[in-house]
From TrEMBL:
This is Glycine--tRNA ligase. HAMAP family: Gly_tRNA_synth_B. It comes from Mariniphaga sediminis. Residues 176-409 form the Aminoacyl-transfer RNA synthetases class-II family profile domain. The gene is glyQS. It is found in: Cytoplasm.
Length: 511
Protein backbone atom coordinates (compact mmCIF):
# COMPACT_ATOMS: atom_id res chain seq x y z
CA UNK A 1 0.00 0.00 0.00
CA UNK A 2 1.23 3.50 -0.79
CA UNK A 3 2.71 5.34 2.18
CA UNK A 4 0.17 8.14 1.71
CA UNK A 5 -2.72 5.72 2.03
CA UNK A 6 -1.20 4.28 5.18
CA UNK A 7 -0.96 7.78 6.60
CA UNK A 8 -4.62 8.47 5.80
CA UNK A 9 -5.59 5.26 7.54
CA UNK A 10 -3.48 6.18 10.53
CA UNK A 11 -5.26 9.53 10.85
CA UNK A 12 -8.66 7.80 10.64
CA UNK A 13 -7.51 5.23 13.19
CA UNK A 14 -6.47 7.96 15.64
CA UNK A 15 -9.96 9.39 15.47
CA UNK A 16 -11.87 6.10 15.60
CA UNK A 17 -9.97 4.85 18.63
CA UNK A 18 -9.97 8.00 20.75
CA UNK A 19 -6.41 9.17 20.17
CA UNK A 20 -6.72 12.48 18.30
CA UNK A 21 -9.73 14.56 17.27
CA UNK A 22 -9.91 17.65 15.09
CA UNK A 23 -10.50 20.66 17.35
CA UNK A 24 -14.01 22.17 17.26
CA UNK A 25 -15.16 19.43 14.92
CA UNK A 26 -18.88 20.09 15.51
CA UNK A 27 -18.27 23.54 14.05
CA UNK A 28 -16.41 22.06 11.07
CA UNK A 29 -13.06 22.23 12.79
CA UNK A 30 -10.31 24.75 13.41
CA UNK A 31 -7.40 24.32 11.07
CA UNK A 32 -4.17 22.86 12.49
CA UNK A 33 -5.53 22.59 16.02
CA UNK A 34 -6.21 19.18 17.56
CA UNK A 35 -7.58 17.62 20.73
CA UNK A 36 -6.31 14.44 22.32
CA UNK A 37 -8.88 11.81 23.27
CA UNK A 38 -8.98 9.32 26.12
CA UNK A 39 -6.07 7.23 24.85
CA UNK A 40 -4.21 10.06 23.18
CA UNK A 41 -3.84 11.96 26.44
CA UNK A 42 -2.41 8.88 28.15
CA UNK A 43 0.12 8.28 25.38
CA UNK A 44 1.07 11.95 25.41
CA UNK A 45 1.55 11.91 29.19
CA UNK A 46 3.73 8.81 28.93
CA UNK A 47 5.92 10.43 26.26
CA UNK A 48 6.28 13.50 28.45
CA UNK A 49 7.20 11.37 31.45
CA UNK A 50 9.79 9.49 29.43
CA UNK A 51 11.38 12.78 28.38
CA UNK A 52 11.06 14.55 31.75
CA UNK A 53 12.47 11.73 33.83
CA UNK A 54 15.29 11.09 31.35
CA UNK A 55 16.28 14.75 31.76
CA UNK A 56 15.52 15.64 35.36
CA UNK A 57 15.75 12.27 37.13
CA UNK A 58 18.75 10.87 35.29
CA UNK A 59 20.83 14.04 35.17
CA UNK A 60 21.83 15.39 38.53
CA UNK A 61 22.57 18.77 36.95
CA UNK A 62 19.29 19.24 35.08
CA UNK A 63 16.32 20.75 36.94
CA UNK A 64 12.76 21.53 35.85
CA UNK A 65 10.76 24.72 35.39
CA UNK A 66 7.20 25.69 34.51
CA UNK A 67 7.10 29.27 33.24
CA UNK A 68 4.00 31.18 32.11
CA UNK A 69 2.86 31.39 28.50
CA UNK A 70 2.42 35.15 28.68
CA UNK A 71 5.65 37.07 29.11
CA UNK A 72 6.75 40.67 28.94
CA UNK A 73 6.59 41.72 25.27
CA UNK A 74 10.14 43.09 25.33
CA UNK A 75 11.37 39.50 25.72
CA UNK A 76 10.31 38.81 22.14
CA UNK A 77 11.99 41.96 20.91
CA UNK A 78 15.21 40.96 22.69
CA UNK A 79 15.09 37.37 21.42
CA UNK A 80 14.72 38.54 17.82
CA UNK A 81 11.31 36.96 17.33
CA UNK A 82 9.48 40.24 16.62
CA UNK A 83 11.86 41.08 13.79
CA UNK A 84 13.02 37.73 12.51
CA UNK A 85 10.64 34.89 13.37
CA UNK A 86 9.43 34.64 9.80
CA UNK A 87 8.76 32.00 7.21
CA UNK A 88 8.97 32.73 3.47
CA UNK A 89 5.54 32.18 1.96
CA UNK A 90 4.38 31.85 -1.64
CA UNK A 91 0.85 31.53 -3.08
CA UNK A 92 -0.31 29.66 -6.12
CA UNK A 93 -2.59 32.06 -7.99
CA UNK A 94 -4.81 29.33 -9.42
CA UNK A 95 -5.48 27.13 -6.42
CA UNK A 96 -5.12 30.07 -3.98
CA UNK A 97 -3.14 27.67 -1.78
CA UNK A 98 -0.31 29.00 0.31
CA UNK A 99 3.02 27.25 0.75
CA UNK A 100 6.33 27.71 2.50
CA UNK A 101 8.84 28.44 -0.25
CA UNK A 102 11.62 26.68 1.68
CA UNK A 103 9.49 23.57 2.14
CA UNK A 104 8.66 23.39 -1.58
CA UNK A 105 12.37 23.40 -2.36
CA UNK A 106 13.17 20.90 0.39
CA UNK A 107 10.58 18.56 -1.11
CA UNK A 108 12.22 18.95 -4.50
CA UNK A 109 15.54 17.95 -2.92
CA UNK A 110 13.88 14.94 -1.30
CA UNK A 111 12.52 13.87 -4.71
CA UNK A 112 16.01 13.85 -6.22
CA UNK A 113 17.29 11.89 -3.22
CA UNK A 114 14.49 9.41 -3.69
CA UNK A 115 15.48 8.86 -7.33
CA UNK A 116 19.03 8.06 -6.22
CA UNK A 117 17.80 5.68 -3.55
CA UNK A 118 15.50 3.90 -6.02
CA UNK A 119 18.39 3.37 -8.39
CA UNK A 120 20.48 1.95 -5.54
CA UNK A 121 17.62 -0.28 -4.39
CA UNK A 122 17.23 -1.74 -7.89
CA UNK A 123 20.94 -2.44 -8.21
CA UNK A 124 21.02 -3.98 -4.75
CA UNK A 125 18.37 -6.48 -5.83
CA UNK A 126 20.20 -7.25 -9.06
CA UNK A 127 23.64 -7.81 -7.56
CA UNK A 128 22.63 -9.30 -4.21
CA UNK A 129 25.46 -9.83 -1.71
CA UNK A 130 28.11 -8.73 -4.21
CA UNK A 131 26.68 -5.20 -4.27
CA UNK A 132 29.07 -2.43 -3.30
CA UNK A 133 26.99 0.69 -2.66
CA UNK A 134 29.87 3.13 -2.52
CA UNK A 135 31.30 1.95 -5.82
CA UNK A 136 27.87 2.11 -7.41
CA UNK A 137 27.37 5.68 -6.17
CA UNK A 138 30.72 6.70 -7.59
CA UNK A 139 30.27 5.13 -11.02
CA UNK A 140 26.63 4.85 -12.05
CA UNK A 141 25.94 7.70 -14.53
CA UNK A 142 22.30 8.19 -13.49
CA UNK A 143 23.21 8.37 -9.80
CA UNK A 144 26.09 10.72 -10.54
CA UNK A 145 23.86 13.02 -12.60
CA UNK A 146 21.24 13.17 -9.88
CA UNK A 147 23.83 13.67 -7.18
CA UNK A 148 25.18 16.65 -9.12
CA UNK A 149 21.67 18.07 -9.50
CA UNK A 150 21.11 17.62 -5.77
CA UNK A 151 24.31 19.35 -4.78
CA UNK A 152 23.79 22.29 -7.13
CA UNK A 153 20.27 22.85 -5.91
CA UNK A 154 21.27 22.43 -2.28
CA UNK A 155 24.08 24.99 -2.56
CA UNK A 156 21.86 27.49 -4.33
CA UNK A 157 19.06 26.99 -1.79
CA UNK A 158 21.36 27.34 1.24
CA UNK A 159 22.82 30.55 -0.19
CA UNK A 160 19.38 32.05 -0.85
CA UNK A 161 18.29 31.26 2.73
CA UNK A 162 21.45 32.66 4.25
CA UNK A 163 21.26 35.82 2.17
CA UNK A 164 17.55 36.13 2.98
CA UNK A 165 17.08 36.48 -0.76
CA UNK A 166 13.36 36.06 -1.36
CA UNK A 167 13.59 36.75 -5.10
CA UNK A 168 16.14 33.99 -5.50
CA UNK A 169 13.89 31.55 -3.59
CA UNK A 170 11.14 32.29 -6.10
CA UNK A 171 13.58 31.94 -8.99
CA UNK A 172 14.60 28.48 -7.71
CA UNK A 173 10.94 27.43 -7.65
CA UNK A 174 10.51 28.72 -11.21
CA UNK A 175 13.75 27.14 -12.51
CA UNK A 176 12.99 23.81 -10.90
CA UNK A 177 9.53 23.90 -12.49
CA UNK A 178 7.89 23.16 -9.17
CA UNK A 179 4.12 22.92 -9.60
CA UNK A 180 1.34 23.41 -7.04
CA UNK A 181 0.20 19.94 -5.93
CA UNK A 182 -3.43 21.13 -5.98
CA UNK A 183 -3.80 23.08 -9.26
CA UNK A 184 -0.81 21.51 -10.99
CA UNK A 185 0.19 24.97 -12.31
CA UNK A 186 3.33 27.06 -11.87
CA UNK A 187 1.51 30.34 -11.54
CA UNK A 188 3.25 31.66 -8.41
CA UNK A 189 3.19 34.98 -6.55
CA UNK A 190 6.39 36.53 -5.22
CA UNK A 191 7.84 35.18 -1.98
CA UNK A 192 7.02 37.25 1.13
CA UNK A 193 8.03 37.06 4.79
CA UNK A 194 5.34 36.13 7.29
CA UNK A 195 5.73 36.51 11.08
CA UNK A 196 4.57 33.45 12.95
CA UNK A 197 3.72 34.92 16.34
CA UNK A 198 0.16 35.23 17.64
CA UNK A 199 -0.60 38.42 19.56
CA UNK A 200 -3.35 39.38 21.95
CA UNK A 201 -4.04 42.19 24.39
CA UNK A 202 -3.60 42.18 28.14
CA UNK A 203 -5.30 44.67 30.47
CA UNK A 204 -8.85 45.80 31.15
CA UNK A 205 -9.00 49.20 29.47
CA UNK A 206 -8.65 49.68 25.77
CA UNK A 207 -6.11 52.51 25.99
CA UNK A 208 -4.10 50.84 28.75
CA UNK A 209 -3.98 47.44 27.07
CA UNK A 210 -0.60 45.99 26.27
CA UNK A 211 0.11 43.87 23.23
CA UNK A 212 1.43 40.50 24.38
CA UNK A 213 2.44 37.44 22.39
CA UNK A 214 1.59 33.80 22.85
CA UNK A 215 5.05 32.27 23.18
CA UNK A 216 6.31 30.61 19.98
CA UNK A 217 8.85 28.57 21.99
CA UNK A 218 9.20 27.71 25.66
CA UNK A 219 12.95 28.47 25.68
CA UNK A 220 12.65 32.18 26.47
CA UNK A 221 10.84 31.35 29.73
CA UNK A 222 13.97 29.41 30.69
CA UNK A 223 16.39 32.18 29.70
CA UNK A 224 14.61 34.88 31.69
CA UNK A 225 14.58 32.56 34.72
CA UNK A 226 18.21 31.52 34.37
CA UNK A 227 19.37 33.67 37.30
CA UNK A 228 16.41 32.71 39.53
CA UNK A 229 17.12 29.01 39.13
CA UNK A 230 20.89 29.31 39.25
CA UNK A 231 20.83 31.33 42.46
CA UNK A 232 17.96 29.61 44.29
CA UNK A 233 19.23 26.16 43.33
CA UNK A 234 22.90 27.09 43.83
CA UNK A 235 23.52 25.53 40.44
CA UNK A 236 27.04 25.18 39.13
CA UNK A 237 27.87 25.37 35.46
CA UNK A 238 27.43 23.15 33.47
CA UNK A 239 23.73 22.71 34.31
CA UNK A 240 20.44 22.51 32.49
CA UNK A 241 16.85 23.67 32.89
CA UNK A 242 14.08 21.55 31.37
CA UNK A 243 10.54 22.61 30.62
CA UNK A 244 7.45 21.15 28.98
CA UNK A 245 4.76 23.54 27.80
CA UNK A 246 2.52 24.90 25.09
CA UNK A 247 3.85 26.99 22.22
CA UNK A 248 1.95 28.76 19.46
CA UNK A 249 2.88 29.52 15.86
CA UNK A 250 0.67 30.89 13.14
CA UNK A 251 1.99 28.32 10.65
CA UNK A 252 1.44 29.22 7.00
CA UNK A 253 0.92 25.70 5.88
CA UNK A 254 -0.57 23.41 8.39
CA UNK A 255 -1.14 20.06 6.76
CA UNK A 256 0.01 16.58 7.68
CA UNK A 257 -2.16 16.22 10.75
CA UNK A 258 -0.35 16.88 14.04
CA UNK A 259 3.05 17.25 12.36
CA UNK A 260 2.59 21.00 12.05
CA UNK A 261 0.09 22.62 14.39
CA UNK A 262 -0.74 26.16 15.40
CA UNK A 263 -0.98 25.22 19.08
CA UNK A 264 1.45 22.54 20.17
CA UNK A 265 3.60 21.43 23.04
CA UNK A 266 7.37 21.49 23.35
CA UNK A 267 9.85 19.72 25.61
CA UNK A 268 12.92 21.93 25.77
CA UNK A 269 16.12 21.83 27.76
CA UNK A 270 18.64 24.64 27.84
CA UNK A 271 22.08 23.57 29.03
CA UNK A 272 24.33 26.38 30.31
CA UNK A 273 28.04 25.91 29.75
CA UNK A 274 31.36 27.69 29.94
CA UNK A 275 32.13 29.71 26.75
CA UNK A 276 34.34 27.73 24.39
CA UNK A 277 33.02 24.34 25.57
CA UNK A 278 29.66 24.62 23.78
CA UNK A 279 30.58 22.57 20.71
CA UNK A 280 31.75 19.63 22.86
CA UNK A 281 28.48 19.78 24.77
CA UNK A 282 26.60 20.04 21.48
CA UNK A 283 28.15 16.73 20.39
CA UNK A 284 27.39 15.13 23.76
CA UNK A 285 23.73 16.16 23.67
CA UNK A 286 23.42 14.98 20.08
CA UNK A 287 24.45 11.53 21.14
CA UNK A 288 22.33 11.51 24.33
CA UNK A 289 19.24 12.53 22.41
CA UNK A 290 19.75 10.02 19.60
CA UNK A 291 20.02 7.24 22.19
CA UNK A 292 16.77 8.44 23.78
CA UNK A 293 14.98 8.05 20.44
CA UNK A 294 16.53 4.75 19.54
CA UNK A 295 15.82 3.17 22.94
CA UNK A 296 12.17 2.96 21.86
CA UNK A 297 13.15 0.19 19.45
CA UNK A 298 11.68 1.49 16.19
CA UNK A 299 14.82 0.64 14.19
CA UNK A 300 18.05 2.61 14.07
CA UNK A 301 17.85 2.91 10.27
CA UNK A 302 14.76 5.10 10.64
CA UNK A 303 16.64 7.96 12.30
CA UNK A 304 19.26 10.33 10.99
CA UNK A 305 20.84 13.68 11.74
CA UNK A 306 20.22 16.51 9.33
CA UNK A 307 22.46 19.58 9.27
CA UNK A 308 20.64 22.89 8.89
CA UNK A 309 20.93 24.68 5.53
CA UNK A 310 20.71 27.97 7.37
CA UNK A 311 21.71 28.61 10.95
CA UNK A 312 19.22 30.63 12.99
CA UNK A 313 20.41 34.11 13.95
CA UNK A 314 21.39 32.86 17.42
CA UNK A 315 23.17 29.59 16.58
CA UNK A 316 26.75 28.49 15.85
CA UNK A 317 25.79 24.86 15.26
CA UNK A 318 22.46 23.12 14.68
CA UNK A 319 21.23 19.70 13.76
CA UNK A 320 17.83 18.01 13.50
CA UNK A 321 16.99 14.49 14.54
CA UNK A 322 14.87 13.20 11.67
CA UNK A 323 12.60 10.19 11.61
CA UNK A 324 11.36 8.34 8.55
CA UNK A 325 7.65 9.20 8.63
CA UNK A 326 5.28 7.71 6.04
CA UNK A 327 5.80 11.01 4.16
CA UNK A 328 9.62 10.87 4.31
CA UNK A 329 12.44 11.79 6.68
CA UNK A 330 11.30 14.81 8.74
CA UNK A 331 12.43 16.70 11.80
CA UNK A 332 11.31 15.51 15.22
CA UNK A 333 13.80 17.36 17.35
CA UNK A 334 16.28 20.21 17.00
CA UNK A 335 19.60 20.44 18.84
CA UNK A 336 21.10 23.91 18.75
CA UNK A 337 24.18 25.59 20.06
CA UNK A 338 22.61 28.98 20.83
CA UNK A 339 25.85 30.69 21.95
CA UNK A 340 25.37 33.47 24.52
CA UNK A 341 22.93 35.22 22.21
CA UNK A 342 19.74 35.01 24.28
CA UNK A 343 21.23 35.78 27.69
CA UNK A 344 23.27 38.67 26.26
CA UNK A 345 20.20 40.10 24.57
CA UNK A 346 18.23 39.92 27.83
CA UNK A 347 21.11 41.66 29.60
CA UNK A 348 20.99 44.40 27.01
CA UNK A 349 17.24 44.89 26.95
CA UNK A 350 16.61 44.50 30.70
CA UNK A 351 19.66 46.39 31.89
CA UNK A 352 20.36 43.62 34.45
CA UNK A 353 23.52 41.58 34.70
CA UNK A 354 22.84 37.97 33.71
CA UNK A 355 26.16 36.33 34.48
CA UNK A 356 27.77 33.42 36.19
CA UNK A 357 30.69 33.70 38.54
CA UNK A 358 32.91 30.74 37.80
CA UNK A 359 34.87 29.96 40.99
CA UNK A 360 37.33 27.76 39.11
CA UNK A 361 38.25 30.50 36.63
CA UNK A 362 37.65 33.26 39.15
CA UNK A 363 35.76 35.29 36.56
CA UNK A 364 32.21 36.17 35.51
CA UNK A 365 30.77 35.49 32.09
CA UNK A 366 27.53 35.12 30.18
CA UNK A 367 27.08 31.35 29.84
CA UNK A 368 26.76 29.71 26.44
CA UNK A 369 23.77 27.49 25.80
CA UNK A 370 23.13 24.17 24.10
CA UNK A 371 19.45 23.48 23.56
CA UNK A 372 17.52 20.31 22.86
CA UNK A 373 14.01 21.02 21.60
CA UNK A 374 11.42 18.43 20.70
CA UNK A 375 7.70 18.69 19.97
CA UNK A 376 5.47 16.45 22.09
CA UNK A 377 2.91 16.20 19.31
CA UNK A 378 5.47 15.45 16.64
CA UNK A 379 6.97 12.78 18.88
CA UNK A 380 3.44 11.42 19.37
CA UNK A 381 3.03 11.22 15.59
CA UNK A 382 6.42 9.55 15.29
CA UNK A 383 5.51 6.92 17.86
CA UNK A 384 2.10 6.22 16.45
CA UNK A 385 3.30 6.02 12.82
CA UNK A 386 6.02 3.59 13.85
CA UNK A 387 3.55 1.52 15.87
CA UNK A 388 0.69 1.34 13.34
CA UNK A 389 0.64 -2.01 11.66
CA UNK A 390 -1.80 -3.91 9.46
CA UNK A 391 -1.27 -7.66 9.69
CA UNK A 392 -2.62 -10.47 7.57
CA UNK A 393 -3.38 -13.49 9.73
CA UNK A 394 -4.30 -17.04 8.71
CA UNK A 395 -8.05 -16.46 8.72
CA UNK A 396 -8.44 -12.71 8.91
CA UNK A 397 -6.45 -9.55 9.42
CA UNK A 398 -5.87 -7.12 12.26
CA UNK A 399 -4.80 -3.55 12.87
CA UNK A 400 -2.44 -3.35 15.79
CA UNK A 401 -0.62 -0.50 17.45
CA UNK A 402 2.72 -2.00 18.43
CA UNK A 403 3.43 0.71 20.98
CA UNK A 404 6.35 0.15 23.33
CA UNK A 405 4.57 -1.25 26.44
CA UNK A 406 6.11 1.57 28.49
CA UNK A 407 4.22 4.14 26.43
CA UNK A 408 0.95 2.24 25.83
CA UNK A 409 -2.09 4.09 27.25
CA UNK A 410 -3.74 0.94 28.66
CA UNK A 411 -1.35 -1.65 30.03
CA UNK A 412 -3.76 -4.52 30.42
CA UNK A 413 -7.35 -5.48 29.69
CA UNK A 414 -9.06 -7.96 31.96
CA UNK A 415 -11.85 -9.98 30.36
CA UNK A 416 -14.26 -12.51 31.83
CA UNK A 417 -14.86 -15.27 29.26
CA UNK A 418 -18.61 -15.08 29.93
CA UNK A 419 -20.76 -12.62 31.84
CA UNK A 420 -21.84 -15.12 34.50
CA UNK A 421 -20.68 -17.83 36.91
CA UNK A 422 -18.75 -15.33 39.02
CA UNK A 423 -16.23 -14.59 36.27
CA UNK A 424 -16.95 -10.82 36.06
CA UNK A 425 -16.48 -10.54 39.84
CA UNK A 426 -13.17 -12.39 39.62
CA UNK A 427 -12.02 -10.09 36.79
CA UNK A 428 -12.94 -7.04 38.90
CA UNK A 429 -10.95 -8.47 41.80
CA UNK A 430 -7.86 -8.68 39.58
CA UNK A 431 -8.30 -5.09 38.44
CA UNK A 432 -8.76 -3.91 42.02
CA UNK A 433 -5.35 -5.37 42.84
CA UNK A 434 -3.50 -4.13 39.77
CA UNK A 435 -5.06 -0.69 39.26
CA UNK A 436 -2.70 1.00 41.71
CA UNK A 437 0.24 0.23 39.46
CA UNK A 438 -1.16 -0.04 35.95
CA UNK A 439 -3.79 1.54 33.77
CA UNK A 440 -6.27 -1.37 33.49
CA UNK A 441 -9.42 -1.78 31.45
CA UNK A 442 -12.36 -4.09 32.08
CA UNK A 443 -14.04 -5.51 28.96
CA UNK A 444 -16.88 -8.02 28.87
CA UNK A 445 -18.72 -7.11 25.66
CA UNK A 446 -18.62 -9.25 22.46
CA UNK A 447 -16.68 -12.43 21.76
CA UNK A 448 -13.15 -12.82 23.11
CA UNK A 449 -11.78 -12.57 19.54
CA UNK A 450 -13.46 -9.20 19.02
CA UNK A 451 -12.26 -7.98 22.36
CA UNK A 452 -8.67 -8.91 21.49
CA UNK A 453 -8.95 -6.96 18.20
CA UNK A 454 -10.26 -3.93 20.04
CA UNK A 455 -7.32 -4.00 22.44
CA UNK A 456 -4.86 -4.58 19.55
CA UNK A 457 -6.26 -1.46 17.88
CA UNK A 458 -5.56 0.70 20.92
CA UNK A 459 -2.21 -0.97 21.54
CA UNK A 460 -2.84 -2.72 24.87
CA UNK A 461 0.17 -5.01 25.36
CA UNK A 462 -1.52 -7.59 27.65
CA UNK A 463 -4.98 -9.17 27.71
CA UNK A 464 -5.89 -11.28 30.73
CA UNK A 465 -8.78 -13.71 30.36
CA UNK A 466 -10.69 -15.08 33.33
CA UNK A 467 -12.39 -18.44 32.67
CA UNK A 468 -13.97 -21.25 34.68
CA UNK A 469 -10.63 -22.74 35.58
CA UNK A 470 -9.74 -19.43 37.25
CA UNK A 471 -12.43 -19.94 39.88
CA UNK A 472 -10.85 -23.27 40.75
CA UNK A 473 -7.10 -22.66 40.69
CA UNK A 474 -6.64 -18.87 40.49
CA UNK A 475 -4.86 -18.99 37.15
CA UNK A 476 -5.68 -16.91 34.06
CA UNK A 477 -4.49 -16.76 30.46
CA UNK A 478 -2.33 -13.83 29.50
CA UNK A 479 -2.20 -12.99 25.80
CA UNK A 480 0.66 -10.99 24.35
CA UNK A 481 -0.30 -8.34 21.79
CA UNK A 482 2.59 -8.67 19.33
CA UNK A 483 3.06 -12.45 19.21
CA UNK A 484 -0.60 -13.21 20.06
CA UNK A 485 0.73 -16.10 22.13
CA UNK A 486 -1.15 -17.12 25.23
CA UNK A 487 0.14 -18.48 28.48
CA UNK A 488 -1.54 -19.77 31.63
CA UNK A 489 -0.21 -18.04 34.73
CA UNK A 490 -1.14 -17.61 38.38
CA UNK A 491 -2.97 -14.37 39.21
CA UNK A 492 -0.29 -13.66 41.77
CA UNK A 493 2.32 -13.61 38.98
CA UNK A 494 0.55 -10.93 36.87
CA UNK A 495 1.97 -7.90 38.67
CA UNK A 496 5.51 -9.14 38.16
CA UNK A 497 5.10 -10.16 34.50
CA UNK A 498 3.45 -6.89 33.50
CA UNK A 499 5.54 -4.68 35.77
CA UNK A 500 8.73 -6.04 34.20
CA UNK A 501 7.61 -4.97 30.73
CA UNK A 502 5.97 -1.60 31.36
CA UNK A 503 8.48 -0.02 33.68
CA UNK A 504 10.27 3.10 32.37
CA UNK A 505 13.39 1.56 33.82
CA UNK A 506 13.57 -0.66 30.72
CA UNK A 507 14.16 2.42 28.60
CA UNK A 508 16.32 4.29 31.08
CA UNK A 509 18.75 1.40 31.35
CA UNK A 510 19.42 1.69 27.61
CA UNK A 511 20.35 5.37 27.81
P1 LIG B 1 10.06 23.46 11.14
O1 LIG B 1 11.31 23.72 10.33
O2 LIG B 1 9.46 22.09 10.92
O3 LIG B 1 9.06 24.56 11.08
P2 LIG B 1 11.50 24.42 13.37
O4 LIG B 1 12.88 24.11 12.96
O5 LIG B 1 10.96 25.79 13.29
O6 LIG B 1 10.50 23.40 12.66
P3 LIG B 1 12.06 24.42 16.14
O7 LIG B 1 11.79 25.86 16.29
O8 LIG B 1 13.44 23.93 16.18
O9 LIG B 1 11.31 23.89 14.84
O10 LIG B 1 11.17 23.66 17.23
C1 LIG B 1 11.61 22.52 17.92
C2 LIG B 1 10.64 21.37 17.77
O11 LIG B 1 9.31 21.78 18.06
C3 LIG B 1 10.58 20.79 16.37
O12 LIG B 1 11.60 19.86 16.18
C4 LIG B 1 9.22 20.13 16.38
O13 LIG B 1 9.28 18.85 16.99
C5 LIG B 1 8.40 21.04 17.26
N1 LIG B 1 7.58 21.94 16.45
C6 LIG B 1 7.95 23.11 15.90
N2 LIG B 1 6.93 23.68 15.26
C7 LIG B 1 5.87 22.85 15.40
C8 LIG B 1 4.53 22.87 14.96
N3 LIG B 1 4.05 23.89 14.26
N4 LIG B 1 3.72 21.84 15.29
C9 LIG B 1 4.19 20.81 16.02
N5 LIG B 1 5.45 20.73 16.47
C10 LIG B 1 6.28 21.73 16.17
Amino acid sequence: MAQEDIFKKLVAHCKEYGYVFQSSEVYDGLSAVYDYGQYGVELKNNIKKYWWDSMVLLHENVVGLDSAIFMHPTIWKASGHVDAFNDPLIDNKDSKKRYRADVLIEEQLAKIEEKINKEIGKAQKRFGDAFDEQQFRETNPRVLANQKKYEELHTRFAKALNDNDLQELKQIIVDQEIACPVSGTRNWTDVRQFNLMFATEMGSTSDGAMKVFLRPETAQGIFVNYLNVQKSGRMKIPFGIAQIGKAFRNEIVARQFIFRMREFEQMEMQFFVRPGTELDWFEKWKSIRMKWHQALGFGEENYRFHEHEKLAHYANAAVDVEYKFPFGFKEVEGIHSRTDFDLSQHEKYSGRKIRYFDPELNESYVPFVVETSIGVDRMFLQVISAAYCEEELEKDSRVVLKLPPVLAPVKLAVMPLVKKDGLPEKAREIIDKLKFDFNCQYDEKDSIGKRYRRQDAIGTPFCVTVDHQTTQDNTVTIRYRDSMEQERVAITELGKIIGGKVSMRNLFEKL
